[in-house]
Design brief:
Blueprint: H1 2-19, E1 32-42, E2 61-62, E3 68-74, E4 90-96, E5 102-109, E6 114-119, E7 123-133, E8 138-148, E9 153-157, E10 162-168
Parallel strand pairs: 1-10
Antiparallel strand pairs: 1-2, 1-5, 3-4, 3-6, 6-9, 7-8
Length: 169
């Protein structure tokens, strides 16, 4: 009798374990993408900053080609339900300025808009200026080397977004 009872209990235990609920494992959804294009200008030629009628108006030249702009994404923003207290990574994407002053980068995005930090490098450039020479009594054009800085900016992106903006140093 003890062996039949033991066998019955064992069979019920196997049946319960075999039919117990299992939690379905799901992979997190892959984020989509957002396309960001920034046109970057800098005033390196102050001699052309007047309009046809003599009014002052800044004329922006393109930022030098090859300049690298960094886009920083907090990966917590890519989670539909972020885990409180978890240390999410900061993802950095580099974009290189082309000859037309544009930088294009594809960033991960989800349906909910989130902010991306854009970090601009300091630029050492020659600034063309007009100065009056008191010795010759003439205006002269000179070039002075300067380091130009631009503070960080924030842009919002979401899945499927095509962002086109202009930013000037």
């Amino acid at each position: 009798m003890k062996t039949i009872t033991f066998a019955a209990i064992t069979m019920m235990l196997i049946a319960v374990l075999g039919t117990s609920c299992t939690k379905t494992q799901t992979e997190p959804a892959e984020p989509g993408t957002a396309m960001v294009t920034l046109h970057l200008g800098i005033n390196t030629d102050e001699t052309n900053d007047t309009t046809y009628n003599g009014a002052t108006m800044t004329q922006w030249e393109n930022v030098p080609a090859g300049t690298v702009v960094k886009f920083v994404v907090d990966s917590e923003n890519l989670q539909e339900s972020p885990v409180s207290g978890y240390a999410y990574d900061k993802l950095t994407y580099d974009g290189t300025v082309d000859a037309s002053g544009d930088v294009m980068v594809e960033l991960p995005a989800i349906g909910t808009a989130y902010d991306v930090d854009v970090k601009f490098p300091d630029l050492e450039v020659g600034i063309k200026r007009e100065r009056y020479n008191t010795v010759t009594n003439n205006d002269e054009v000179i070039t002075e080397t300067e380091i130009i800085t631009k503070g960080d900016e924030v842009i919002s992106v979401w899945d499927g977004a095509i962002i086109i903006q202009e930013h000037n140093y």
